[in-house]
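step 3/5: co-fold with pyridoxal-5'-phosphate
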Amino acid sequence: MAAFMAHSAATLRPHVKVHKCSRVAQMQLEAGATGVTCATIREAITMANGGVTDLLVANEFLSEEKLEVLARLVGIGADIAITVDNPAQIVALAAAAARHGVVFGVLVELDVGMGRCGVDSAVDAFELAANVSGQRGLTYRGIQGYEGHCMTVRTAMVRRHCAEEANSRLVDAADYLASRGCPPEVVSAGGTGTYAVTAGNDGITEVQAGSYALMDTFHGGITEGEFEYALSVAGTVVSRRGRQIVIDCGLRSVDGALPVLWDHPEGQVRFYGEEHTVVEFPGAPSPKIGQVVEVIPGYTASTLRLYDEFLVTEGDVITGVWPIFE
Ligand SMILES: Cc1ncc(COP(=O)(O)O)c(C=O)c1O
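step 4/5: write tokens
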């Protein structure tokens, strides 16, 4: 990803929800990322504690307690920008900034088709941008429009079209903001399934893709071998008969889309329950009973909620233990 982005005018601000680990974020910065994107307060704390201080918190907040934590992070040197889509969040942010004597950056979020957070139109985005510009303690930085709805489109050409359309809505809104006297310094978008399209749009200044870093079967299915898998969960074959094995590694261990076996891709996951994954092979299963197999999760971000640390390996040797959250 970093190599691809080095040839793009846009910068890379990877989303850290997919690893929640400042060591991985530091590696991304060393490879050229200009900062990171977080979804939660806990991710922001983890990054700041680990010395990663250029943070976009791409989420909407009203809670005094949560904003107090962010303000304290700014107080100890973090540069934090937060997204808004409602005047109520601006009021809460400005109050927190005033209470703690800090400044938050602000991006207005536009809904580019995902139907999650974000204002509906460029006109609404302008109203919020003008509102932010008038507040002490807030600095208007620009606009975000994450095309998350395109990631679930499996066909590459249709996904490209979806991303082009979403990116155009974002850039059109950015142009409108500029025409009304609120030129966005930051126009932020992009995920692992759309990064090439997003980075190719001259109006977009940064790409927030994150899943590429560790990968999972969901993103593997939409990137066609562009990124290597780096994360697996160790499971044990606890039953073996005929053409099937059962691994003690179900939804409590790997979350999201159907997992696959790292070294045994010929095995098809037939059933995936709370404590078990049942894998069927074309003939006699290659894994033996009692064998430890590596399971690639369907979705990294939700799988990592279940763990406290990564065991980092080189070959068969564990070379590090990296905390997930700090
Ligand atoms: C706002 C935002 N930006 C970026 C991303 C990262 O996308 P991906 O996991 O496809 O790399 C996400 C993921 O959910 C997101 O919500």
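step 5/5: annotate
The chain is about 30% helix and 25% strand.
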